[in-house]
Amino acid sequence: MTSTQQPRLTSLDGGADHVSRSRVEDLDRILAGSLSVGEQQAAVLPVSIVIPTWNEAENIGHVLRAMPAVEQLVIVDADSDDGTADVVRETHPEATILLQKPSGKGNATRAGLEVASAEFVICMDADGSMDPGEIPAFVALLQQGFDMVKGSRGAVGGGSTDFTPLRRAGNRSLVMAYNALFGTRLTDITFGYIGFRRDILPQLGLYATGFEIEVQMVAHSALAGLRFAELPSTEADRISGESHLSTWGDGKRVLATIVKSRFQPGREWWRHRGAVRPVYDVLPTQVEALEAALALAATPEAGAVERRGAAVRLPRQRVAPTDARL
């Protein structure tokens, strides 16, 4: 997706927004006083990008060519037979390529995390549904002090061009269940565009084997009392091929992971957990949400911010009905 395109974005609640995805205009405002987006993209960002792949030869090249310069790229390939690894080598010769055994997105992600070496880590998909142009925004928030930053299609300014009615209903139901159990106000828990500080990995205690690893990251970060931020993000249609996601099968595994994480942790990290706290409410626009997050990190004792333990919560603002989320 180019920066000049303005796709019709469908939110988790079925609303629609015409949102400009001009990263340069928006993020130059956000990062004023630090690095401009152009400077960040020209510099090498201190981040390891972890991407699981399985027969993504027609997609992965597009993703890698759109990626800013990063310290490390880790591709975990599930023994693809379409030449995915060859495309990676041609497009990004310095990439670390791992052969995944056993299969499963969770297994692949955890294998990639084991070799990640940069200060920050971002997990993303290989199919082109996640915009690599958002990586500097993830890094900026992590550099400002957040432990984990998650892309959200449900936050104002985010959205999806790939939601079917069934996927939208399923996502909204899972978000509602998660928020009810964890006392949070998140807008999206199943989008796998997630960044975090590498040194928090021991606190996450990840063990999921499939797509549910994404919600496990979020749930375990909440129970560990980590500083968490949502970043409005856009999900595009995959460039080519069919999704490996099973709406019903993976949806049930995600729900089971939510319940197990809340009531049956049974892991060492549980003994170090913080209280389950609200994170923060969505703000009216993408720019305001990013500005508020960065301003919070820079001035954590600002009067508009309510600090509760290690987590933070920004006050809800009124938005137009067409912009309301969840």
TrEMBL record:
Tell me the superkingdom of the source: Bacteria
Q: Where are the transmembrane segments?
A: none
- Give the Pfam families listed for this entry: Glycos_transf_2
Identification of the protein by name = Glycosyltransferase 2-like domain-containing protein
Q: What region holds the Glycosyltransferase 2-like domain?
A: 48-203
Q: Which family does it belong to?
A: Belongs to the glycosyltransferase 2 family.
The species this protein belongs to is Marmoricola endophyticus
Matching entries from SUPFAM superfamilies are given as:
Nucleotide-diphospho-sugar transferases
